[in-house]
Amino acid sequence: MTTHRGGCHCGRVQFTVEGPDELDVVECNCSICRMTGYLHYIVPKARFRLLAGREELTSYRFNTGTAEHLFCRVCGIKSFYVPRSHPDGISVNARCLDSATVKSVRIAQQFDGANWERHAAELPPLSD
């Protein structure tokens, strides 16, 4: 496992996440992911650590309200959030990770989030 650093555009929100140096991610076509270009790297909460910027985060919930989308209130970037599919995990935007430790990013799954209810069972479970 590699410890990757990441954060928002302005640098106020900073975190680390543990994972391989070659990341398999999920690309979702729901409205919010499509509009923001979000690439999901979903991990158990124990593998994520917020280093700075908790006070800069603002929350947005829609539809069922299960997912908690967290944005930097200064620059507007959503570098991580609590996903509806895995409320006991964290989804990190692979595009917000420091490229120094990421050897490659591979889209391992195209997820039809626009039709979430029909396809939710296709998402893999959280790995340890």
Characteristic terms for this protein:
128 residues, mainly beta, Metal Binding Protein, Guanine Nucleotide Exchange Factor, Chain A, three-stranded antiparallel sheet
Count of separate DSSP helical elements: 2
CATH architecture verdict: Beta Complex
The largest sheet is: 7 strands, mixed
- DSSP strand content: 35-45%
Query: How many angstroms separate the termini?
Result: 11 Å
Shape: globular
Q: How would you describe the overall organization of this protein?
A:
It is a single chain. The protein is mainly β and about 130 residues long. The chain has a single domain, classed as Beta Complex (Metal Binding Protein, Guanine Nucleotide Exchange Factor, Chain A), CATH 2.170.150. About 10% of the residues lie in helices and about 45% in strands. The chain is built from 2 helices and 10 strands, in the order βββαβββββββα. The strands form 2 sheets. It has a 7-stranded mixed beta sheet, with no helix packed on it. The mean pLDDT is about 95.
Give the SSE map.
Layout: E1 2-7, E2 14-19, E3 22-28, H1 31-36, E4 39-44, E5 48-52, E6 57-60, E7 68-72, E8 80-82, E9 89-93, E10 104-111, H2 116-119
Parallel strand pairs: 3-10
Antiparallel strand pairs: 1-2, 2-5, 3-4, 4-9, 6-7, 7-8, 8-9
Short description:
This protein is mostly beta strands.
